[in-house]
Structure formats: C-alpha cells, structure tokens
Amino acid sequence: STDCDALVSLRPGTMPTPRKMPARSTMADIFARGRLIVGLDIGSNLFSFRDTITGDIKGFDVDVAQAIARAIFNDPDQIEFRVLTSGERIAALQAGYVDVVVKTMSITCDRRQDVAFSAPYYVANQRILAQRNAGISDTDDLAGKRVCAARGVTSIGRLQSIVPTAKITTTSTWADCLVMLQQGQVDAVSTDDAILAGLAEQDPWVSVIGPSLGEENYAVGIAKGHDDLVRFVNGVLENLRDSGQWQQMYNRWLSILGPGYPPVPRYED
C-alpha cells in the first residue's frame, strides 16, 4: 500500500545474555539448531563476497550477520551462509530456508506485505556506473542506452520512471553486470552506490557518476510472524551503533564512498 511508513520497525526489548535465549522464542530455536542460517550472495563486493585467497565470505553484510550470531551464541561463526539471488530473497524467508536475509535488501512497502524488516542498517543512494570515457555523466545520458541491473531489485523501477527509454538488461548477479559493461554489451549499470563502489574497485576504467536517483534503506529481512526476532535484531543493530562498531565496519568496507553515518531507527511502538 502507498500509505505505508516503510522504515518503521519494532522496538527492541531488553537483550538476553548470549547463549541464554528466552524459552520458546525464535532465537531459542536457532540456538537449539546450533547455527544461524543467513541468506546472502557472494557477488556483492564490499557487502558480501568470497575472499579469493582465503575462500572466506566477508563484507559489511557479513559483519552484520555475524553480530546477530554473536548475540545468540557468543560466537560470530555459528553461522551457515546460503547463497541467494536478489529474486530469491523473499521466497527463501517465506519457506523457512533461511532465518534472516542480510543481502543489500531495501525496505519497500511492497516487500513488507510479504516479509518483516529490521530497522535500516545502511542508507544507499542509487547512482550510475559507466566506463570513464563513455560520455555518460548524468541520468539524461542514459536515454536509449542499455543499462544492466540484477533481477528482482528496486533500482530497476526507479530507473524506468526517470529514464523511460533506457533498455534494461537483467542478470542474476551484479558481478555479471560488470562483465557485460567491460565487454561493451551494456552502456551502464545502475543501482545503489555501495554496490557500484564494490564493482568500481575491481576495474580502474569504470567510475560511479551522477547525482542520487533516490535512497535505498537496507535492512535485515525476517519472515513474518517472528516479531521476537525482529526486536532482537534491532537490539543487535542498536548495540552496533552505540558501541561504535557500525562506524568501524563502515570504515573497514565502505570508506571509498566518503564519510558514512548509521541510520537512526524509528519504531512504531
């Protein structure tokens, strides 16, 4: 519905001690299983990607997921990652295939009909990635051009409303978009600056350009009916903010974007 206030979430209660989850809570079920099951992807450089040397999955989203695991188990590594495409995130939560999705997932009113969200943990701005010498410097330059995006993302609709003549090509991962750009199969990629920065870091001949086309608020996706887990995750996010850990994570992964600040949560209760 259009009148939804997409960004409000549920206020965290008193946080339980790690390893002592409230009886019959969603967190107690996760604790009994022995691991937190997290949906993410491994093609979003800086947010969640596989380290080519160690094979570890790392990045800003991974740090968020590990903070949730640490709050349940007192161990950030009691975690199982399940790789999802952007288009699979909602179905994976609804089917119980994952406990949480931490995958550059923007909060929208449409998505809130299907899944619950934590408070935002990151605010991105949609921008454009293009070859440095391509003569593209603003959204107007995308008229009639071929633009790549990953399937199932919110940035496609926004781009179509701003530049109706752009020809959209979709792929399963953002890494595939970078390859298409490098091979000249598309003229640009458009999505959140944070994702684009991770692509730009891998290729000196491309750059992130233009003003913001709009904001995206990333949050942890959680299946409906698990309000206790929503409140718990919001408590984890508050701790990350208050302890200065969010800032450390930002500086570690995203400082290429300039200074960053944690979003301030708003709660409906």
Automatic annotation (TrEMBL):
It comes from the Bacteria. The keyword NAD does not apply. Residues 35-257 form the Solute-binding protein family 3/N-terminal domain. Signal peptide: none annotated. One of its GO terms (cellular component) is outer membrane-bounded periplasmic space. SUPFAM superfamilies: Periplasmic binding protein-like II. One of its GO terms (biological process) is amino acid transport. Keywords: Signal, Transport. Pfam families: SBP_bac_3. PANTHER family: ABC TRANSPORTER GLUTAMINE-BINDING PROTEIN GLNH, AMINO ACID ABC TRANSPORTER PERMEASE. Belongs to the bacterial solute-binding protein 3 family. This is Putative ABC transporter substrate binding protein.
